[in-house]
Amino acid sequence: MSASGNTEITVCPRGPLLVRGEIELRDANGRPIEPERGTVALCRCGASARKPFCDGSHKLTGFERPRGDAA
Ligand code: FES
Fold first, then answer.
1. Most confident of 1-15, 19-33, 54-68
2. Which one of 3.30.420, 3.40.5, 3.30.530, 2.40.10 gives the CATH number of domain 2-61?
3. Which of the ends of the chain has fewer CB neighbours closer than 10 A, N or C?
4. Which sequence spans correspond to the domains of the chain?
5. For residue 45, which atom of ligand 1 is closest to its CA?
6. Over residues 28-52, mean pLDDT
7. Ligand 1 centre distance from Cα of residue 37 (Å)
8. Residue 71: what pLDDT?
């Protein structure tokens, strides 16, 4: 993922990474993934059925931040 302009990433406690701003999102093979909105929520719990996007499943799994994570 690379960005141009102003991009902001917010770590949500027990939730996704919220990415605001212009980004290029790609899958593991380098194929572009179109962001669905201006603000993109990226799953970091591993439970989403819509990876790389968050689908709210973290609320059901009781996801806790990884060790060493600040938020
Ligand atoms: S962070 Fe929301 S489903 Fe994984």
1. 19-33
2. 3.40.5
3. C
4. 2-61
5. 4
6. 92
7. 16
8. 57
